[in-house]
Amino acid sequence: MKNEIKVVELFAGVGGFRLGLEGWNGKSASSGYKKKMSSPFKIVWSNQWEPSTKTQHASLVYENRFGNKHHSNEDIAQVEVANIPDHDLLVGGFPCQDYSVATTLKNSKGLIGKKGVLWWSIHKILSEKETKPKYLFLENVDRLLISPSGQRGRDFAIILQSLNELGYIVEWRVVNAADYGMPQRRRRVFILAYLKGTEIYDNIKESNPIEWILEEGTFAEAFPVQTEYSLVPNEFELVGDIVSISENFNKKGSLGMFENSGIMIDGLVTTIKTKPYYDGNFTFLGDIIQNGEVTSEFYINNEDIDKWNYLKGAKKEMRKNAQGFEYHYSEGGMIFPDPLDKPSRTIITGEGGKSPSRFKHVIQTPKGFRRLSPVELERLNMFPDNHTQLEGVSDTKRAFFMGNALVVGVIERVGISLCSKIENGIIVQS
Question: pTM to 2 decimals?
């Protein structure tokens, strides 16, 4: 193993970033935790806080798996930056919220957006740290690129300009895990940033932006893509500070300005639509199913099948709202039960519980129809079996964790590529 890469993990959940970067018990997620993984990544501090719950279940699961040393279970907005150790890489999956910027505070180093928006907690760390992290690796829902509806892409533009002002080059890629052989169709935007003075920063400055996006970049190595070279990339400059961008970015535009792949260098954005290129093996829902270990409470009673069929079926009917107003309601049907010969649909936070639902997964087995078990949901996100099992944590809560989690294999592949860019070793062996 080469030089250690010190990592701070924010919004840690139950540890998806950590599993992808460090592995579990020295094993690799992409191998089903069977092959050895030697990684330079080392989590030196982590934070998990859920403001809406009294009992911090996710943090308890995290501590149960990784220990409570250097782990913080307090509101990140209240954490003193001085208490966060210096680190090389900052990672986290921060929520997609309203990032609009309202004011400039006289006593702050920068511009502050709405209170409680977790992006500004990241911004605060980057602004106040005397030794800034060299790299950032962030995750969000892909609608970040087109939010809000009245100013398509404004929120992402604010983030890009924030990082530009702090001295970072930023690249991004929307990745659907199933496109690269993983067991779940989960589409997210991943963001990498490189601080001025790093070797990667210098290499990007010397590269052609399109070549970096398509062939040379960290994401291009981790997740190869193809594109129609006849397509002209969208190029534009981020104009003004983040307050100006908040007020004016794409104000009259009905379409988003950011494609699924792109890079921002010194405020100049280059973005192009790409398609995944993958010729490896695929993992399907049927490949991760438990055989014989699932208990009876996950099976659906015959008398409830009609309810499930109705909720998942196509509808075109009259409905009445709370005020008594009648309206036409329609929606398309969903495949029922879920096919075992394809990657699964995206896990949602409401996956748990016995009540019939349009969005919960249901499979057909020789014993009948049933919901997915917590272990199967963990496998769809490429977590170790029973990673979230802990006394006092219900199966419904475990399903909630997986609805909020990410696909660990995506993190692992980006970590391997990032290591190669900064000349560190990460080795997966049989």
Answer: 0.93
